Amino acid sequence: MPATGQSHFSEIQSKSVPNGNDSLNEEQIQQEGLEDVTTSLISIPTAGRRFCRQFSEQSVAESGRKALSMAEVEMPGVMRLRKIYGPTKPLKGVRLAGCLHVTAQTGVMIETLRELGAEIRWSCCNPLSTQDHIAAALVKAGIAIFAWKGETEEEKLWCIDQTIYFANGEPLNAILDDGCNLTRIVHEKYLHLTHAIHGCSEETTAGITKLRKLLKSKKLSIPVINVNDSVTKSKFDNNYGCGESLVDGIKRATDTMIGGKTAVIIGYGNVGKGCAKTLSGHGAKVIITEIDPICALQAAMDGYQVTTIAEACKIGHIFVTATGSTELIRGEHIMEMRDMAILCNIGSGQTEIDVVWLK
Q1: Sorting pLDDT into bands at 50, 70 and 90, what band is 326?
Q2: Sheet holding 49-55, edge to edge
Q3: Which CATH architecture group holds 240-358?
Q4: Domain segments of the chain: what residues?
Q5: What are the two backbone dihedrals, phi and then psi, of residue 98, each rounded to the nearest 5 degrees?
Q6: What are the pLDDT digits (tens) for 153-204?
Q7: 113, 192, 237, 305: which is deepest, by most CB within 10 A?
Q8: Distance CA 22, CA 268 (A)
Q9: Beta-carbon-side half-sphere exposure of residue 1 (alpha carbons within 13 Å)
Q10: CA 181 – CA 198 distance, rounded (Å)
Q11: CATH architecture of the domain formed by 7-172
Q12: Are 321 and 353 in contact (CB under 8 A)?
């Protein structure tokens, strides 16, 4: 459900914010005369100034609340947990820093974690995935959200930094991560805090790969729950959820017909398998490129043509990277593609396609 109001930035006087807490509570909003807008405070790190991000219509937060209510209906298990454990607050004392997408679904999870007693500070793992109307609704509900759609890389890192220390000055003691974004920063900049962190969860293949490298080099300082390899994640979310999200994203962005087109899937892991199945179900001819011989053989046994990127780039209409790796589609590949080819990435991160070269 898209936001109905437009957002804008307006400068306010730089002021001292206690304990580094840059989110505005309701009292501060009233003092600024912003009662009719939903507001969160951000910073331009290089300029050293603070800006007030205002959603110019109250309906933005209202739209987000409606989307959250709809998502709750689709998440009966999470809502059941809220009902059973909400009264006892089993997460009381947990200062949870999250670095995940800010969507209606994660919004339901965030509010459930708070209902179970946790203190929450949240940033987004992907600068382009935040749903602003959801962020507005969560901010209005009193949750510290440091995320907005279209962050620069510098702003993304600044937002993650804001989740390290909580309003009372105490540091995080639990992490909920995507792509190892927050966990990496903790190990690089806040290693002295790791002794008090109970643990972290990681939900992506790319994030788990990075954590395994840390473990192998004996630099991993906190316990990790590998959510990515759980059956419900790998066999359901990766397989079914990613496929549906891919087709939905392509149609929303391009309004194109998938049937009859040649779709090239780069990577045939659980995500690639789900994407191939969904695109095939929409009538596309699917071609797979895969460097792992076992996965490549699986693709062939599933009935797909298997080839190299160099060959596939000459015949594809739609290209989907699904590996979490880097520089898979490069300039030399793009030069060989047909005019108006569609490039998509559903893997973690933003480096699978050389967008810098493309621009």
Answers
A1: confident
A2: 7-11, 49-55, 38-44
A3: 3-Layer(aba) Sandwich (3.40)
A4: 7-172, 240-358
A5: -115, 145
A6: 999 999 999 999 999 999 999 999 999 999 999 999 999 999 999 999 999 8
A7: 113
A8: 42
A9: 21
A10: 18
A11: 3-Layer(aba) Sandwich (3.40)
A12: yes
Q: Residue type for 282, please?
A: H
- Measured CA to CA, the distance from residue 353 to residue 326 in angstroms comes to 7
The type of residue at 85 is Y
DSSP state, residue 331: H
The angle at the Cα of 104, spanning 98 to 106, to the nearest 5 degrees, equals: 25
CA-CA-CA-CA torsion sign (151, 157, 163, 168)? negative
- Pull the structure tokens for residue 264: 């090239």
Q: Which residues, in sequence order, are bridge partners of residue 145?
A: 122
Among 3-17, 87-101, 304-318, the least confident range: 3-17
Cβ-in-10-Å burial (0-12, 13-18, 19+) of 267 comes to: buried
Q: Which residue, 184, 137, 186, 128, is CA-closest to 155?
A: 128
Alpha helix positions (H), the chain: 26-31, 59-73, 76-85, 104-115, 132-140, 153-161, 181-189, 205-216, 231-232, 242-254, 270-281, 293-301, 309-312, 331-334, 355-358
Token pair in block for residue 169: 């000055």
Q: Does the fold of domain 240-358 match that of domain 7-172?
A: yes
Kindly state the tokens that stand for 160: 């993650």
CA distance 109 to 132: 17
Residue ranges in 75-230 assigned as alpha helix (H): 76-85, 104-115, 132-140, 153-161, 181-189, 205-216
Is 80 exceeded by the pLDDT of residue 19? Answer: no
CA distance 279 to 193: 45
- Of 55, 42, 11, 41, nearest to 157 (Cα)? 42
